[in-house]
Specification:
single chain, TIM Barrel, globular, alpha/beta, RNA-binding, about 375 residues, about 20% strand, eight-stranded parallel sheet, three-stranded antiparallel sheet
Length: about 375
RNA sequence: GGAGGGUUAGCGAAGUGGUCAAACGCGGCAGACUGUAAAUCUGUUCCUUCGGGUUCCAUGGUUCAAAUCCAUGACCCUCCA
């Protein structure tokens, strides 16, 4: 089902925006956080648990589902929604991040990117057309143009030529894309360069996509650089189209980038950190594996409304994580996802009240201040 | 009663004269993690006032030097009576 974006309100003092994603008869407010479910599952959670966190869109991955179980099988199953039993909107990433995380520079050509199947060693070749074909077969609601996510540091020359190729790939994706029920978003690249980011954004807007994403961040850059990349990327994007910052999910980064005009975020960290025993809290990140929590029979966060905080204690979760019981990862994933979604809910309120700068100040004081 | 084998750090287990404060695994204690090659990875784990000190069942011995060789004892395991 094709999603639609409506801008509702702009915050008075910043570029922050309140909007909504319309999905059939359902509506989801933005800014929003999308939980990541790479392999057609948000790791350790059932779709019911994901929804209980008040999640809207979730993200799945073209590359992984291409390799396993294969897009034809998902299609045969009735599409991604039926396959994984999720009736909310689903976005598929194009495999562009895997160009960064899995492929070597020599594997990338104008035509596409060579991969080695990690499960059986087969040679694989992903192209813009192939990525779109897979995403159409998967039946996601939002497809992403195949891009190259460039790691940092990178030379200006490489960043420029890669970005130009990403633009050509975006055109090929648009030409290949046929499914009218599926939205297609394009990725702004251009590394740390103002000139390249702005150029890329303008060119993509000329091609006219359903939404735009800022890519090439969350690759290990310093925070101020990330914020600049977003500012450059967002500047020439149309107001009536949704803006998604790919891979970003550190709480402070969500606050800072909402202020800069981002509507959607995704990040693996709430679920990965959960599996590794960490929890986000208003007063910073805590490691539930630490011995000091063994006899702490209070919830992870006392005023959190998530299932884990309503029913379980730090001491119990410490026990589960130390015993490698998967329920520990489930509880912390629920908490961390709910934490980030709650953060976006608070940011939406701040936009409604035109006091997002005050919100940021309070957030930083709490999150990075003296630990309680 | 006889014949073998064994006892090493919190646990399991290497090491069989010097390069051994002693591999490795587990456990413990910490740390990292940003469009998921990640329920993974890294550090650390006898004591220390960082000079050093005290270890490899116990005691005695051989040797310049012993976890390693010898003697005796304790305990454990297997087999034979």
């Amino acid at each position: 089902m094709k999603v639609e974006y409506k801008l509702q309100k702009k915050e008075k003092n910043t570029n922050a925006r309140l909007g909504k994603i319309i999905y059939g008869d359902k509506e989801f407010e933005t800014p929003m956080f999308m939980p990541v479910g790479t392999q057609a599952t948000v790791k350790t959670l059932s779709p019911e648990q994901v929804k209980e966190c008040n999640a809207g869109i979730i993200l799945a991955n073209t590359y992984h589902l291409w390799l396993r179980p294969g897009e034809d099988i998902v299609k045969k199953a009735g599409g991604l929604h039926k396959f994984m039993n999720y009736d909310g909107p689903i976005l598929t990433d194009s495999g562009g991040f895997q160009v960064f995380s899995l492929a070597k520079p020599k594997d990338i050509s104008e035509e596409g990117v060579k991969f080695k199947n990690q499960y059986n060693g087969d040679s694989l070749f992903l192209t813009p057309e192939k990525s779109i074909d897979i995403q159409e077969k998967l039946g996601s609601d939002i497809a992403i143009c195949f891009d190259e996510c460039v790691g940092l540091p990178a030379t200006y020359e490489y960043t420029k030529s890669s970005m130009e190729r990403t633009l050509r790939w975006a055109k090929r994706c648009k030409d290949a894309h046929k499914d009218e029920n599926q939205a297609l978003f394009a990725v702004v690249q251009g590394g740390e360069s103002k000139e390249l980011r702005e150029y890329c954004a303008k060119k993509l807007v000329e091609m006219d996509f359903d939404g735009y994403t800022i890519g090439g961040t969350s690759v290990g850059e310093e925070k101020p650089i990330q914020y600049k990349m977003v500012e450059y990327g967002v500047k020439y994007l149309p107001e009536d189209k949704v803006r998604y910052l790919m891979g970003v999910g550190d709480p402070i980064d969500i606050v800072e980038n909402v202020i800069r005009g981002i509507d959607i975020f995704d990040c693996v960290s709430p679920t990965r950190l959960a599996r590794h025993g960490h929890a986000y809290t208003r007063y910073g990140k805590i490691n539930l594996k630490n011995a000091k929590f063994k006899e702490d029979f209070t919830p992870v966060e006392k005023d959190c409304d998530c299932y884990a905080c309503k029913h379980y204690t730090k001491g119990y979760i410490n026990h589960l994580i130390k015993s490698e019981e998967s329920f520990g990862a489930t509880l912390l994933s629920i908490h961390n996802i709910r934490y980030l979604i709650r953060l976006t809910e608070e940011l939406r309120d701040a936009i409604k009240n035109d006091n997002i700068l005050e919100y940021r100040e309070r957030f930083i004081k709490d999150y990075y201040g003296e630990k309680k």
